[in-house]
Amino acid sequence: MYNRWYVSYNTESYKQEIVFKREKLMQKSRHYGEKISDSQKRGLIDYMNNSDEGYNYYGYYKDKDKLFSIWDYCIIDIPTLVPEKTLNYYRKTVQYGLIEHDYENVTTEIEKAMKYLADGKYSHEPIIFKTFFLMAEIMVKLQHEPEKNYFYNARVIDDILKMQQLLDNHKLGDILLLKGVNAFYIKKKDDVYYSFKEAYKYYSEGETSRYWIKKSLLEENIRYTFTELGIYKTGYDMSFLSAECRQPLTISKKNQFIASGIQRTSDLHINLPLI
Fold this sequence. Notes:
- This protein is mainly α.
- The chain is about 65% helix and about 0% strand.
- It contains 13 helices and no strands.
- The longest helix has 19 residues, at about 15-35.
- The radius of gyration is 19 Å and the shape is globular.
- The protein starts with a helix and ends in a 19-residue tail after the last helix.
- The model has no long low-confidence stretch (mean pLDDT about 90).
């Protein structure tokens, strides 16, 4: 109960009073978990607590070590210890691989996850998990040979957008962000501009977890890609942006730019979505 209460504040956790409230709720949830005698049920509560608390640090690369110190408990032998969280375990191993730019690990774990999704004993929420693993597949391809994978990525993104119409679970901003990043590497200005503009709109509505971080990381993408592609100079409407983001980066800042998100492209210039 305390864990779910903790999660219910995900879209408000930037407020200091909510931070304090969530800390108390997590303490109570962990205290409650320690009293459970059944090892599998206790393992389930422990997994949920570690997973959910870790998401506090799933935003900026500077918090990677803190994130891993918590999530390391989520990538032990979860399929054996807490089998109903097997798909969640694969999600974590894929997230680790994306953070570390580990193509082989990400693709291998996605393959395992998709097989489990099809016939695993505790397979559940198939559209939600399929959406995640398809997005992760695009992300790892954007980290490795993005130009080569453009057309494949574009086709999968279109499929994911259709699934999102069924789900309507506030992932549209993340999908549009992916569409814009995919377009950037083949210099499709219109797709970059309109995809990022629509993603910015959805994040600004504040209905997705950690939307304020997602919006900040998207602003970095906008300034870098709009500068690199010359979008600022070609008459596109910038009125939806803050005053700072309406101006291109200087040549010096562009050349030294490093994206601050925890999941980035391998050139470190572009933030990938927090999925």
